[in-house]
């Protein structure tokens, strides 16, 4: 049976490292890799099919889903790496206090971290709604845990990822009604040495600051050990379940 994987955000950092892990596994015949600029998708592997996608626009989501559907009927692994914490060009940075909130930044962070991934899954439609084994994973974060929140702050990022986790749970319940082999999870990759985390690495234990390749290796191990009983959960890089 032909197996197909889809990695959103595979042009650099953790996304690219995950693509490499997937290719090395030789488990998939097609590996769809999305980027806003497909020229940045660095792979000559014939299994890789570049897909132009900007999760911030409905038309791009619709066009990308239609493009993938022209190749295959079913996806068996879907990983979404979308995430924004800060953007200097937008004047966006994690809020330290409630007074730092503004509507524009909230909308931007929610659009990337929450709205985009699940509008994307909605657009994929029948490609994820089948009875074959399928895993749908969205990068989440430990700071999205309400029970684990002891510091406050980072309002937009925390809230957007918490909302993402709720949509993960909802999708897991919806797919499980017709497909007991479906696994839908959030994944916490740890602190990865990427542009997203660079301004916040000073206090991180060097042993817990992962290269993209390290984190991708941990996440790939987690993905390969997931069972349907774990659907709806948020799983950390070390395989531990994160309290909602």
Structure description:
This protein has 244 residues and is of the alpha/beta class. It has a single domain, classed as NAD(P)-binding Rossmann-like Domain (Rossmann fold). Helices cover 34% and strands 16% of the residues. The strands form 2 sheets. A 7-stranded parallel β-sheet has the order 3-2-1-4-5-6-9, with helices on both faces. Strand 5, helix 4 (155-176) and strand 6 (182-188) form a beta-alpha-beta unit. Helix 1 packs across helix 5 (212-225) and helix 2 (58-69) packs parallel to helix 3. The termini are far apart.
Could you tell me the CATH topology label. Rossmann fold
Q: Mind summarizing the main beta sheet?
A: 7 strands, parallel
Overall number of structural domains: 1
The CATH class designation is: Alpha Beta
List keywords for this structure.
244 residues; alpha/beta; Rossmann fold; seven-stranded parallel beta sheet; 5 helices; 9 strands; globular
Fold blueprint:
Elements: E1 4-8, H1 13-25, E2 30-35, E3 48-52, H2 58-69, E4 77-80, H3 103-124, E5 134-139, H4 155-176, E6 182-188, E7 191-192, E8 209-210, H5 212-225, E9 234-236
Parallel strand pairs: 1-2, 1-4, 2-3, 4-5, 5-6, 6-9, 7-8
Helix pairs in contact: 1-5, 2-3, 3-4
Summarize the structure.
This protein is α/β, with parallel strands linked by helices and 244 residues long. The protein has helices at residues 13-25, 58-69, 103-124, 155-176, 212-225; strands at residues 4-8, 30-35, 48-52, 77-80, 134-139, 182-188, 191-192, 209-210, 234-236. It has five helices and nine strands.
